[in-house]
Amino acid sequence: MSMASGGEGPTSTPHKHTNRLAKEKSPYLLQHAHNPVDWYPWGQDAFDKARNEDKPIFLSVGYSTCHWCHVMERESFEDEEIGRILSDNFVCIKLDREERPDVDKVYMTFVQATSGGGGWPMSVWLTPDLKPFIGGTYFPPRDHGRRPGLKTVLSRIMEQWRNNRPALESSGERILEALKKGTAVAANPGESPPLAPDAATRCFQQLAHSYEEEYGGFRDAPKFPKPVNLMFLMSYWSVNRSTSEGVEALQMALHTLRMMALGGIHDHVAQGFHRYSTDSSWHVPHFEKMLYDQAQLAVAYITASQVSGEQLFADVAQDILLYVSRDLSDKSGGFYSAEDADSVPSSGGTKKREGAFCVWTASEVRELLPDVVEGASEPVTQADIFMHHYGVKEQGNVAAEQDPHGELEGQNVLIVRYSVELTSARFGISVEKVNELLAAARAKMAEVRTSRPRPHLDTKMLASWNGLMLSAYARVGAVLGDKALLERAAQAGYFLKDHLWDAERQTILRTCYRGDQMEVQQISPPISGFLDDYAFIICGLLDLYEATLQTEWLQWAEELQLRQDTLFWDEVGGGFFCSDPSDSTVLLQLKEDQDGAEPSANSVSASNLLRLSHYTGRQEWLQRSQQLLTAFSDRLTRVPIALPEMVRSLMAQHYTLKQIVICGQRDAQDTTSLLAAVNSLFLPHKVLMLVDDDDNFLSQRLPVLSSMSQQGGVATAYVCRDFTCSLPVTDPQELRRLLLDGASDTQAE
Question: What gap in Å lies between CA 605 and CA 607, rounded to an integer?
Fold first, then answer.
């Protein structure tokens, strides 16, 4: 399997300016290492300078594949005059939000509360003791219409700091106090979590209300994939299969996944999904590709294949992992963070353009696919068929309103416009022939793409996103019975243990980096992991155990959960803090209460605790999961649409997890057949375990397993609730029937 090498190599041109960010490893900070701004990374040196010189801090937050961050850098941070104003009057700090999500969340909460909006780049001005007093997002360099430019904003802040400082500080203080109260999430004494069926139905109704029927998805435009919504809808269906709401929920999820797979948000040539669609038909995307989207979408698509039996969904899941293995994989087993939207066009020039790597002119397609197709009802070339099927137009297929900067003029974003059957009928050739022609065309185009200048690759390897990706390889590999995917999943597990786990300090590390020699590097001191790093890795390890049944992964998951509890659990109000509450430089102790582009780590933790309580027999983890859900009960009751992943955890608690226990030799054919029967079904409320002669981990923790054994010397399955078990089953089809009947029983509860 080839590994990614893309991105931009070192450049030989000498730089006019170099600041201290040149010593950092974050790709985002390195992008700013040659600005004429005296940048500091977030840390004690910058804080000390601000206090010693009694200067306000200018905190600029972004990430390396953020389009508007690039724009603000080009316009403002490369401007000598603005650089001088910033360096002379402020202590300037650059922060990569992906390295320090804790700091980002605090100041984003402030910006959203004070300006009504948020996003990146984020620009916030702080007192020397890190309290925010003014904030915003992108600023143009100079005044633009009614919008003040950065230069004007800076001079106003300098004037206010000199003449009106007490008022600035006290208003910042007041807002911070209000935010502390407003963001508190805690359980009231004696309270219990809301009823799962009620919260789930309300969540379904809220999603149905925002659902866009023609192309699927939620709201009109821009349209985001939102895998957390799709996973909730499929889970809701699994316990409401015979109701009209359940059927509607499934239809919403499958239609959305189908339309996304056909749309331009899906890269038809080089696989994977772009960040979001700028229109309602999933056609013209914002072209960056994020690891966390690939991970969650792979799981959503493989789940859709289990639920529907449709090959399309399994193909898309494999397609995503092919992209990640090829373009986002490090040889150490880790996964890179993202590919940028912007790159230099192959036609030349140095100015990067959005989507340049991915789009096509009609003449490029004609030139590349000139062969005449034999046996068609009229004389046509391969290009004619391809252009018809993928909506390629001579003048380009991107509407002007979707291209405000004119970067996609005359270009085509591929989108499947017709089914293969319709294309076959249109040209009078067989469906097989059309499939063959389109696949050959895509392969040629992929070849051409490899010679284009690549977009920037963010080679930072984040623990949390690697945890999500671990789940994806494990889940897809298990459903498809694909050994290569399962080996890649195990490789990712070992990568996390070797490079992002400090065994001595018993601490997950947030991130590591790719060095110039392709070696894995770490910064000193490394950034300690946050709640989502622990939660997503634990979830990945539980999925990896269920896919491989190797108990080393279960053992490490248990160890990490104990550590997570120690570091982040709120003993008073319940639930987990996002970051270590003992870090005094993080002014708000937040508990993430939204499942957004990524699930909230509290939502994932509620499910992890429940699953682990079944694997380890630790009843306190079941109670802790309930306390966590109770802490969020107000939000789960009022706006469950904000927490669809947490509603799934609430449902898992309510319907109780089935234990599926397989007694057999790990790699024996009869064991594999029983496991394949389990993995063919979507069973959101189950734990799967293998009892074999070599395993002590489970038998020590769950003495009841000693009463279960193979019947007649062949692999045997037991399906249990609270370890009250069905009669033993040895036939895979019978096991499948038993599990499907069990799904109907759940529905009746």
Answer: 5
Cα 560–chain centre separation: 21
Position 10 scores a pLDDT of 47
Cβ atoms of 492 and 461 closer than 8 Å:
no
Give me the average pLDDT of each 10-residue run along the chain (749 residues).
Answer: 44 82 96 97 97 97 94 96 97 97 95 90 96 94 90 96 93 89 88 95 98 94 95 97 96 98 98 96 96 98 98 98 98 97 88 94 97 92 97 96 91 97 96 97 97 96 98 98 98 98 97 94 94 98 98 97 97 95 91 94 98 97 97 96 98 94 94 97 97 86 92 95 90 96 60
**CA–CA separation, 30 vs 35, rounded Å?**
10
Token pair in block for residue 227: 């895998």
* Tokens found for residue 233: 């809808």
Q: Answer yes or no: pTM beyond 0.70.
A: yes
What is the pLDDT at residue 163? 95
- Quote the CA–CA distance of 379 and 631 in Å, as a whole number: 68
DSSP string, 376-407: -SS--BHHHHHHHHTT--TT-S--GGG-TTST
How far apart are alpha carbons 643 and 603 in whole angstroms?
A: 8
**CA pair distance 688, 675, nearest whole angstrom:** 9
pLDDT digits (tens, 9 = 90+) for 170-191: 988 998 899 898 889 999 888 8
Residue with tokens 């900070």: 29
Task: Give the residue carrying structure tokens 């319940």.
Answer: 574
Q: Which two tokens stand for residue 508?
A: 């997950």
Which is nearest to 513 in space by CA: 521, 505, 524? 521
Q: Which residue in the block uniquely carries the two structure tokens 């137009």?
A: 393
Contact residues for 709 (Cβ-Cβ < 8 A; gap 6+)? 663, 691, 716
- The answer to whether 736 and 677 have CB atoms below 8 angstroms apart is yes
In 263-347, which ranges are E strands?
A: 276-277, 285-286, 289-290, 338-339, 342-343
List CB contacts of 21: < 8 A, sequence separation 6 or more: 29, 30, 32, 33, 39, 41, 94
Cα–Cα distance between 680 and 352 in angstroms, integer? 45
For 373, which DSSP code?
Answer: P
Total residue count of the chain as it appears in this document: 749
Query: Residue 208 in 3-state DSSP?
Result: helix
CA pair distance 604, 671, nearest whole angstrom: 30
